[in-house]
Design goal:
By secondary structure, this protein is α+β, with helices and mostly antiparallel strands. It is built from 11 helices and 20 strands. The strands form 4 sheets. An 8-stranded antiparallel barrel has the order 13-14-15-16-17-18-19-20. A 6-stranded mixed sheet has the order 2-3-4-7-8-12, with helices on both faces. It has a 3-stranded antiparallel sheet with strand order 1-10-9, with helices on both faces.
Amino acid sequence: MRKPAIQVLVSLAVCGSLANAQPADSPLNPAVLKAVAESFAGKLESDYAVAETGQAMAQAVRAKLGSGTYNGLSSGGDLAYALERDARAVSHDRHLRVGYGPPPQAPAPGLMRKQNGHITKLEILDGNIGYLRIDGFAPPEFAREPMTAAFAFLRNTDALIIDVRHNGGGDPNSVALLMSFLSEGQPRLVNTFHHRDGDRIEEFWTTDLGGASYGVQKPLFVLTSKGTLSGGEEFAYDIKAFKRGLVVGEATGGAANPTRLVDLDHGFFALIPFGRAVNPVTQTDWEGLGVSPDLAVPAEQALARAHRVALEGLKTHVLDLRERAHLEGFALRLELANAAPAGQRIANILLTGVYAPAFPGPSFTVEERDGQLLLRLPGAPDTVLVPVAGHCYRLDGFPDGFFATFLNHNGRLSLLQEQPGSALVFTKLETQSPMSP
């Protein structure tokens, strides 16, 4: 494995723009300017993933140099920007970079360990749906332990959402490792790098993790954004190519070609793609195109959409009426959270009556007394419903998170009763209340 190339990719995923590493600029010597531009053009010709594109970029840079376009530049940062701009105008390759100053380096091992494999959030969402946010792919020696711990925590969930909306890439070996946790059985080829140098093919395979794997049966959703790049895109692309799950969100950035660090002398360097990523199923990649989502929504809505689709899917396979009611309640809570604000509050008189669940269980009564709504449950003290907003009420005397929301659900007046870890729908009956005032 080309460790320097991987380190650069990981560093970029963590550190961001090359401009962050630039020192204070100093005036450019014309001879240095010409030497750096020629060096960059030569490297594009000899190293770039696609020979014809590399030659076209080199010609464009040399044409700019010959016309004097770069002569007015007075700083290393300006020249680096101009070279990158002019080469990218030909290739549109978002992995192609030019920098001035100390080149990016991978963080020290101690810091890499503290980054926990770039796993930044892990939780169980309502409905027993796992959520894993991973913002980059550290080398396997730093990624394996956090991933193993994460999937041990997620093992008993009924569906899984993996969030790569902020993932800028990293080590392709760790993309294969993540795919290993989502597959089972014999190792599988998930990606290849076709090197221009020597026409060599580098392969990336899953590993049979046995009982540590999440398996292939449970529903999987991958969240993406325009900022999902490189290895983050590969993961989403692999999931689609192998039909392992659904991609939800926005089309990704379109940066597929693997990159290595090249010294251009005089304090300049470049990240030049040395080959092409080729998926073994599609025999192509996402370069310049990005990965198209199966469910297209703005990135900020992707989690709620995936969560709701997961809940709706699980509901169709659940036989237990109470469990199904909880899944329906969680899905309805998500719908209300993302809906437009409710209009004028429903008159109290219309809300009074008996409300029953969709499973065998106790019903309750909503009554009006002295202008207030009361929730009455047999054997329990009356609870005042305190208006919050729209048709939502807070249960007075209960801890935070206990709410009752009235709504039209499936054509009937209903009440969504929420509390931490639970959401249930109760439908208003046409009969009279079984309780007397």
